[in-house]
Amino acid sequence: MAQKTINLILMGYGNVGRALVRLLEEKTDRLRASHGLSLSLQAIFKSTGGLFPCAGLEIKDILDDPAAGLSSHPLWKSNLSLESVLREAEPGVLVDCAPSNLKTGEPGLTHTRLALDSGWHVVTANKGPLAVDFSALRRKASGNRLALKFSGAVAAALPALDVGLYSLAGTEVLAIEGILNGTTNFILAEMGKGRSYSEAFQEARARGIAEPDPAYDVEGWDTAVKLLLIANAVMGLELRLADISVEGIVDLPAELVERARSEGKSLKLLGRIRREQSGPIASVAPCTIDRTHPLFGVDGPAKGITYFTDTMGALTISGGKSDPRGAAAALLKDIINIYRS
Ligand code: HSE
Fold first, then answer.
1. What is the best residue among 124, 158, 183 to mutate for testing ligand 1's pocket, by most ligand atoms within 8 Å of CB?
2. Model pTM?
3. Of 87, 215, 264, 304, whose CB neighbour count within 10 A is largest?
4. Which long-range contacts (CB under 8 A, 24 or more apart) does 62-67 make?
5. What are the tens digits of pLDDT across the range 84-109?
6. 181 lines ligand 1 (CB under 6 A)
7. Looking at ligand 1, which atom is closest to the CA of residue 327?
C-alpha cells in the first residue's frame, strides 16, 4: 500500500490530548497497514507554550516525560507561536483538544481560523469555536478546500455525525432526540440506584468524563452545543445556542429519579429538536421516558441518538466509549477519513 506521511499539530494536552498521543503510538502499525498513513506529530501546544519540533522524537519519550506536563522537556518553548509552526511545517491536520469556551470560542476560534487560512485541515473536539462561529468556519474550510471535522465535539465515540451525514443522505431529518452527555446520564443512572447526586458527580469527574468545567455538563450546555452542531450539520440549520431552551439536572429533586424508576420508567437529560411550520424548536431538559422510548436502554455513561426521517423511518444508535480514549479514537477516525479518498 502506498504510504503517506501526514503532519499533525496538537492543541491541548489534557486527558483527551494525552489519550490521542498514546493512540498514535499504539496504532502506528495499523495506520500504516490498513490506511497507508504515517501520522507525524510536529508540535504540541498548551496554554503556556509548546513542544516543537517533535517530529524526531519518539512518542513514548513524550509520554514518559515524568512531569507529564511537557514544560520540563528540553524542546519546550514558552513563547512558541502557532503561526510559526503553521509556516514551518508542511500542512497536515491541526487537532484541537483544548478546553472549550462556549462564550468566546477562544483561543480555539483563532487557532482554527489560522489553520484553515494556512492550508491545514482541522479536526476538533473543542466545542467553543463551533458553538460561536459554526457556519463561517465551515464556509472557510470548504472555500479553502479543507476539511473541518468535529466528531470529537459531538458525542465522540458515538458516530452521531457520520450516521446523520452519510447514512441518512437523501433523507429529510424531521426531528432528533439524543442523550448526548455521558456525565449527566451517568449521574442520573447512579441516582436511580440510590446514590447521592454529589457522590455520582464526583465519580463522573474521577472517570474523566466530565468537562474541565463540569457546570457545562450538569447545566445542560454540553448537550445543547452537541445538539446544535448535529442539527446544523445534518438538518442544514443555522441555529445558535440562544435558540435552544436549556435546563440541566443541577436542581433536579432526587425523588423524581426514584419515582421514575419505581414506575419502571427512566429519567434522562434529553436534547430534542423538531421541525415545525414556524421553524425548528430545540430544547434540553430532564424528561421521564418509558420502555417504548428508543433511548430507554441508554444507561450509565453511554450516549445515544434517534433520527426521525421522512424516508428511512426512525433510526437509533447508542453506545461508544465515554472517556478520553473514546474521544481520542473519534479524533483519529476523523483524521483517517480526511485521507480516505
Ligand atoms: N463531558 C462530556 C460528556 C464529554 O459527559 O459527555 C465530552 O463531550
1. 183
2. 0.93
3. 304
4. 62/21, 63/18, 63/21, 63/22, 63/25
5. 999 999 999 999 999 999 999 999 99
6. yes
7. 7
Residue whose CB lies within 8 A of the most ligand 1 atoms, among 209, 226, 299, 318, for a mutation test? 209
Distance CA(174)–CA(216), nearest Å, equals 27
Query: Cell numbers of 67, please?
Result: 512531569
- Single-letter code of the amino acid located at 326: G
E strands of the chain, at which residues?
4-11, 37-46, 49-51, 76-77, 93-96, 121-124, 148-149, 173-179, 244-246, 266-276, 279-289, 304-309, 314-318
Gap between the terminal Cα atoms of the chain: 14
How far is Cα 43 from Cα 65, in angstroms, rounded to an integer?
A: 15
Amino acid identity at 203 = E
Question: What is the Å distance from ligand 1's center to 303 Cα?
Answer: 10
Cβ 199 vs Cβ 254: under 8 Å: no
The reply to whether ligand 1 has any atom less than 6 angstroms from the CB of 188 is: no
Cell numbers that stand for 340 in this block: 480516505
DSSP for 14-68 reads SHHHHHHHHHHHHTHHHHHHHH-EEEEEEEEEETTEEE---TTS-HHHHHT-TTS
